[in-house]
């Protein structure tokens, strides 16, 4: 039994793969919270409504942008971190999740320099 698993993994074939349905991109549709694509981009945040708002006037164009990947987003001037978050949010939205259940605020900037217990509350600890 283990020889079969070892042989299949040495050829580069995944023995335990996920389903194709989970990996498939589904088209984006209107939701009760977001009747327009601009509303969805506003709820997502991360400057998505400013940078992508004029590119996506309807759901069809937003779905095309989602299927193309991050290249149009990088052309619009979004950072890699913003692109990853927007693609993650669009994927969750395409699978039917309401935006209010998965939208997260951005991480705040660090207030104090330093790593670990040597700097606490902005003061060096001896």
UniProtKB/TrEMBL annotation:
<dbReference type="GO" id="GO:0005739">
    <property type="term" value="C:mitochondrion"/>
</dbReference>
<dbReference type="InterPro" id="IPR039603">
    <property type="entry name" value="Ribosomal_mS41"/>
</dbReference>
<feature type="region of interest" description="Disordered">
    <location>
        <begin position="99"/>
        <end position="126"/>
    </location>
</feature>
<keyword id="KW-0496">Mitochondrion</keyword>
<dbReference type="InterPro" id="IPR019083">
    <property type="entry name" value="SAM_Ribosomal_mS41"/>
</dbReference>
<protein>
    <recommendedName>
        <fullName>Small ribosomal subunit protein mS41</fullName>
    </recommendedName>
</protein>
<comment type="similarity">
    <text>Belongs to the mitochondrion-specific ribosomal protein mS41 family.</text>
</comment>
<feature type="domain" description="Small ribosomal subunit protein mS41 SAM">
    <location>
        <begin position="37"/>
        <end position="96"/>
    </location>
</feature>
<dbReference type="Pfam" id="PF09597">
    <property type="entry name" value="SAM_Ribosomal_mS41"/>
</dbReference>
């Amino acid at each position: 039994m283990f020889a079969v698993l070892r042989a299949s993994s040495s050829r580069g074939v995944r023995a335990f793969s996920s389903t194709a349905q989970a990996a498939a991109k589904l088209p984006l549709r209107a939701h009760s919270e977001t009747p327009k694509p601009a509303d969805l981009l506003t709820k997502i945040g991360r400057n998505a409504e400013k940078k992508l708002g004029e590119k996506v006037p309807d759901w069809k164009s937003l779905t095309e942008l989602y299927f193309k990947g991050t290249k149009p987003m990088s052309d619009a001037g979004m950072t890699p971190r913003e692109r990853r978050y927007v693609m993650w949010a669009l994927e969750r939205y395409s699978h039917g999740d309401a935006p209010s259940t998965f939208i997260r605020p951005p991480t705040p900037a660090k207030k104090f320099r330093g790593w670990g217990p040597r700097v606490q509350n902005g003061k060096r600890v001896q």
